[in-house]
Amino acid sequence: MPRKPRSALAVKRHVFIRQVAIFGVIAAVLAVVGVVAAGAYTGRLTIGFISHPFSSPTPSATDYGPTPCPASDDAKYPANAKITVRVLNASTITGAAGSVGQTLQARGFKVDSVASISEDFQGSILVRAGYKGIDAAYMVLTHMPDDAKLTVDDRDTSVVDVIIGAKYNGIRPA
């Protein structure tokens, strides 16, 4: 027996009910996804397949940031005699700063001061300078071992600090 044709009003009502159901399901799914995403983002909800945090970790005391680039692409590194260096001993090795200071002075650098500091640096050697001293810092870095680190601070001078850390094992031979 053939089906009885439905009236236009009945068809419209059926389409409306289907649309309401589909949009209701979509809205409910979006609400659930939004709540889960907000919980994961704030850290209140742990999701197994997400193994990394959504934010950057807090820098530690020994995180000295990225190595800066020379001041310009065509940087000309200053002569040793034009570079002023402060040698600072952050290690427990007695006389390390004096020894490095004498070696750098023998290589032509102007050694401003040699001192011990209470900074906790667990690396070998840290060369630190302000933006005015980046080129000079790179020149000093060529005299340091391969594991030496370079960092920039906010000083307004071109003086370069050479900080001797706990893993110090000498500087590069001349």
How do the strands and helices of this protein lay out in sequence?
Blueprint lengths: L7 H35 L41 E6 L6 H11 L3 E7 L8 E5 L4 H8 L7 E4 L7 E5 L10
Parallel strand pairs: 1-2, 1-5, 3-4
Antiparallel strand pairs: 3-5
What does this protein look like?
This protein has helices at residues 8-42, 96-106, 134-141, and strands spanning 84-89, 110-116, 125-129, 149-152, 160-164. It is α/β, with parallel strands linked by helices and 174 residues long. The N and C termini lie far apart (104 Å).
List keywords for this structure.
5 strands; 31% helix; 3 helices; single chain; 174 residues; alpha/beta; 5-stranded mixed sheet
Output the structural class: alpha/beta
User: Which runs of at least 5 residues are low in confidence (pLDDT < 50)?
Assistant: none
Count every beta strand, where a strand is a DSSP E run of 2 or more residues.
5
| Mean pLDDT over the full residue set | 84
Strand content: 15-25%
Helix and strand sequence: HEHEEHEE
Cα Rg? 32 Å
Strand order of the largest sheet: 2-1-5-3-4
Short account of what is shown:
This protein has 174 residues and is of the alpha/beta class. It has helices spanning 8-42, 96-106, 134-141, and strands at residues 84-89, 110-116, 125-129, 149-152, 160-164.
